[in-house]
UniProtKB/TrEMBL annotation:
Annotated ranges, domain Rhodanese: 36-147, 178-289
UniProt-recorded name of the protein: Sulfurtransferase
Species annotation: Thermohalobaculum xanthum
SMART domains in the record: RHOD
The organism's taxonomic lineage, starting at the top: Bacteria, Pseudomonadati, Pseudomonadota, Alphaproteobacteria, Rhodobacterales
Pfam families in UniProt: Rhodanese
UniProt entry keywords in alphabetical sequence: Repeat, Signal
Keyword Repeat carried by entry: yes
PANTHER family, per the entry: THIOSULFATE SULFURTRANSFERASE (PTHR43855:SF1)
Entry annotated with the keyword Disulfide bond: no
Signal sequence bounds: 1-20
Length: 294
C-alpha cells in the first residue's frame, strides 16, 4: 500500500478532515493527532536545540531559518532548488497532508508557521495545516512529546513556487503607481506603520503610500492562538478599512507578520486574491535606496 493510500484508508476510518473533504488549515491538538495517526508529515520549524528538548513524535526538524532569505533581506524568497531540497529531505509529497508546528508562544511565533505554510502551499502541497497554539497547546492538552530524532523517507518530487499568492516589488510599484488595483495592508504594530520606529535593516521608516494598518497581533484570542472564526477575521479586516472584491497585498518588515495576516485573511476568512509581499519594507526600502543611488 502506498503512503497516500494508507493515509486515505486511515483518515476514512478516523473521520478526519481529509476523509470528509473538509480540510482545515488550522487544527487543534486532537485533530493533529488524528492526522498524525493517518500518516501526515509533521514539520517542526524550531531550532535544532529546541527540537531535541521534545517534539511531536513523528515530527521532522526543518528550522525556520532554512526557509528564509539572506541576513540582509530575510524576507527574500528562497529559490525552487532550495525549496525542493528542504521538502524532499522532509519526505513531503504534494498529495500527502503536512502539519507545521513550533512553540506557539505568541503572535510573533505564529508568523513563522504562517510563512512556512505559505511556502508549502505555494510549492503545490495540497493540504497543509498549522497546529494552532503549537507545542504549548499540545502539552496543555496533556499530550506527550518525544526526544527521539525522527526522519522520513525522502521524496523525489521537484517543487516550484507558484505565483498565485505572491506579489513582488515590481507588482507593488504598479499598485503604488495606480497601474494595478489592490488594497495594501500593513501587518505591523502602529509605531512601525506611523514611522515612529523602523526595522534595523530597513532604509527608512514609514509604510507604503495608501496602506491600511491591520496589526497582526489583533487576530489572536490568546498568546500564539489565532482566531479561527472566519467572521471575526473579516470583521477585523473591515474595521481596518478592507472592502470585498479587491486584491489584497499583505506586507510588514520581512514577510513574517504579513504571513500571519495573509493566512488569516486567505485561509481562515476565505478572502480571495490575497497576496504576500515576501520582502516587505526591508526589501522595498533597500531597493529604493539602491535605485536612488544611496
Amino acid at each position: 500500500m502506498t503512503r497516500l493510500a494508507m493515509f486515505l484508508a486511515v483518515s476514512l476510518a478516523l473521520g478526519t478532515p481529509a476523509a470528509a473533504g473538509d480540510w482545515r488549515p488550522l487544527v487543534t491538538p486532537a485533530e493533529a493527532a488524528e492526522l498524525m495517526a493517518a500518516d501526515a508529515v509533521v514539520i517542526d520549524i524550531r531550532s535544532v536545540k529546541d527540537y531535541a528538548q521534545g517534539h511531536l513524535e513523528t515530527a521532522v526538524n526543518v528550522p525556520y531559518h532554512a526557509w528564509r532569505g539572506p541576513e540582509d533581506n530575510p524576507g527574500e524568497l528562497i529559490d525552487d532548488a532550495k525549496v525542493t531540497a528542504l521538502l524532499q529531505e522532509a519526505g513531503v509529497e504534494p498529495s500527502i497532508p503536512v502539519i507545521v508546528t513550533n512553540d506557539g508562544r505568541d503572535s510573533l511565533d505564529f508568523g513563522s508557521v504562517a510563512r512556512v505554510y505559505w511556502t508549502l502551499k505555494s510549492a503545490g502541497v495540497e493540504q497543509v495545516a498549522i497546529l494552532n497554539g503549537g507545542l504549548a497547546a499540545w502539552t496543555r492538552d496533556g499530550r506527550a512529546l518525544s526526544k527521539a530524532e525522527w526522519s522520513n523517507f525522502p521524496s523525489d518530487f521537484e517543487f516550484a513556487l507558484a505565483p498565485d499568492w505572491t506579489i513582488d516589488r515590481a507588482g507593488v510599484e504598479r499598485v503604488l503607481d495606480g497601474a494595478e488595483d489592490a488594497i495594501l495592508i500593513d501587518a505591523r504594530p502602529e509605531d512601525f506603520f506611523t514611522g515612529k520606529i523602523k526595522h534595523e535593516l530597513a532604509a527608512w521608516a514609514g509604510t507604503l503610500a495608501g496602506a491600511l494598518n491591520l496589526d497582526h497581533d489583533t487576530l489572536f484570542t490568546a498568546p500564539g492562538v489565532l482566531n479561527a472564526d472566519p467572521a471575526a477575521i473579516r470583521a477585523r479586516a473591515e474595521a481596518a478599512g478592507w472592502t470585498p472584491g479587491r486584491t489584497v497585498v499583505s506586507f510588514c518588515n520581512t514577510g513574517h507578520w504579513a504571513a500571519t495576516n495573509w493566512f488569516a485573511l486567505s485561509e481562515i476568512a476565505g478572502i480571495e486574491n490575497v497576496k504576500l509581499y515576501p520582502e516587505s519594507m526591508v526589501g522595498y526600502t533597500r531597493a529604493q535606496r539602491v535605485s536612488a543611488g544611496g
